[in-house]
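FAQ
Q: What does a multi-component entry look like?
A: The components come first, one per line:
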Amino acid sequence: MTPSPTAPLRLHVPEPTGRPGCSTDFSYLAISPAGAVRRPPTDTPAADTADLATSLVRVLDDEGRAVGPWAPSIHPERLRRGLRAMMKTRIFDARMLMAQRKKKLSFYMQCLGEEAIAVAHAQALAEGDMCFPTYRQQGLLLSRDDIPMSELICQLMSNEGDPLKGRQLPVMYSYKRAGFFSISGNLATQVIQAVGWAMASAIKGDTKIASAWIGDGATAEADFHTALTFAHVYRAPVIINVVNNQWAISTFQSIAGGEGTTFAQRGVGVGVASLRVDGNDFLAVYAASRWAAERARTNHGPTLIEWETYRAGPHSTSDDPSKYRPQDDWQRFPLGDPIARLKQHLIAIGEWTEEQHAAAQKSLEAEVLAAEKEAERHGSLLDGRVPSAAAMFEGVYKDMPEHLRRQRQQMGV
Amino acid sequence: MQPSTEDTAKAMQQAEPVTTQAQQRDQQRAEAQHPDASRVPMTMIQALRSAMDVMMARDDNVIVYGQDVGYFGGVFRVTEGLQAKYGKTRCFDAPISEGGIVGTAIGMAAYGLKPVVEIQFADYFYPATDQIVSEAARMRHRSNGDFTAPMTIRMPCGGGIYGGQTHSQSPEAFFTHVCGLRTVMPSNPYDAKGLLIASIECEDPVIFLEPKRLYNGPFDGHHDRPVVPWSKHALGMVPEGYFRVPLDSAVVFRPGKEVTVLTYGTMVWVAECAAREAGVDAEVIDLRSIWPLDLETIVNSVKKTGRCVVVHEATRTSGFGAELAALVQEHCFWHLEAPIERVTGWDTPYPHAQEWDYFPGPARVGAALKRAVGKEA
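Then the predicted structure of the entire assembly, as tokens:
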């Protein structure tokens, strides 16, 4: 029926299909069968990636087999390392959640269900590349051997061993030596900074690339758009990762602008090559990340990757998702659990067993527990052994100006 | 309106070269550093351009960009010729996105470059506020020095040019309130070059405000008189090579005994003229670095004069003058013989037609000087 021209206008306010007490209808999520999406050469023009921005790159099928053109050639040992890093990340998260409940730290954010994205992406980058993460890419750090887990926990506990001297909220890590940029509470700011870092690498004729991270909700921030524009204009060697976990705190991704479209399509619109990838498929994450990294490193410019995943846990320790979405949502999410899927694959190819898995689980739990104990030797919020108040005045400027010297003296420290 | 040749000649005769003791000290210091440095007349535009030229030649990591900054050389000509000399990867045009310009500069600084970016008018920095306040200013502190933001953000500021609401603002108080930033504003070509070089070399993020009213010549608020070129002033004679004017250092622009005037930018010239015309022996202090500032020079002066007038173009309420008045009250209370006065822009958006009713010219400043020293006004 043709609407009458005099019918009153109506404001459209998107809603998720699933609210507490109902079930989410995940049919909104366009899912391609594993192996079905083409893998173009890495020098492909951005305009030719339009179909890749609406389909879904997947490698692992329901039986855990790696199929199709994106199936990477990757040594099983690296896959086992990836699996262990994902397991470690999940165990770490669970343990820190408990520590927060025990008031040893004030706040925590898990990445439950999103472990594959950061862990597999990290494996596709090279030493010297710089990630500009959000607060939900702890897998980038936990998949490295050179960052002691106890030091991360010291940051979380703001104790005397905190490398950031107690100045930052828990999880706002900074590890230049690990290619992990200082996390800011202000959303999306780091994406445009990543583009600038990549431009700098190009200005200096370097070979390093940048990797920017942002969630689905934060794509609505202006900095996401400036980042895409600058990345396109200057052909910056950067990967812009949009982690679409369907939720921004209580807000479904449709309110961020995801209804009837994908976040990957934003990239195509501004001339940035774009992929939409199964974020719970370790092999697809690794393959797509390698593709984008090679594209950037060979001067073919930026890539936007939308990672489809699901925020399985609460937004943070201050959040209760049962107030806005179904309890069993993750169980019904069609892309499953990244750890379970890689485990199934490794077992299917004869490179892993249930026994090995159980043993790894046990040893990682012990490792995390030991790291927590080690960190607690430096104090925690519980015992008030926090960095000195004098540390508050340092580092505001390179050299402390007179007014801060005076204020510090007023405090008597 | 083009002033007649006769008017210009008359104005040039009126213009007095102003070189204070402290400025002579600066110049002597520069000469000591570079005894062979030849001095040439420069406008503020040329001096700023020269500062970037010198720094780009000295340091490959200095990168200059912004809207219309590259090929065209900037809407005020401040970056003219830099792209031709240093190439498109050292000096280039940017999209119209202040947040993008500052955001990329932060990333570049984190990489190890020294970006010098331009916001075309200070009135248009607002879209970059989040990047300036939440990111550049906090980077060193929040990462415990793991990452830093050594960068300079140039912004033409100030009124007196019929710029209306969005080409005249003086937003320095937005920046001085942000811990981690340095805010600087020169009042003449010599300081403009020396301060810009010092800002580019500084490891902290610097907001470098350039009073566009002073780009081509000093301006004392007498808008009915033709512009006098910088070549008539000692401060328009600028060393061609490298020299610095240190940050955090104020200068006694005009020595005096009766009252201290704390000011910066265009208002330095207005205050100097007001003192002359009002017949008040005012000591005019050009802060140069607005925050962090040179408290010692301020306190020494007010303790000597016992009186203080704060002058700025920016609107009054919560303007930087409030901080200055509070500092003087805290540090000089027992020496004060009169209330601290503030002569500022009104608490209104910057108007177009009412330009000279808004701009705190020499008459308004002079009246405040007379009140402060107890003369009729």
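Q: Is there any commentary attached?
A: Sometimes. For this entry: The radius of gyration of chain A is 22 Å.
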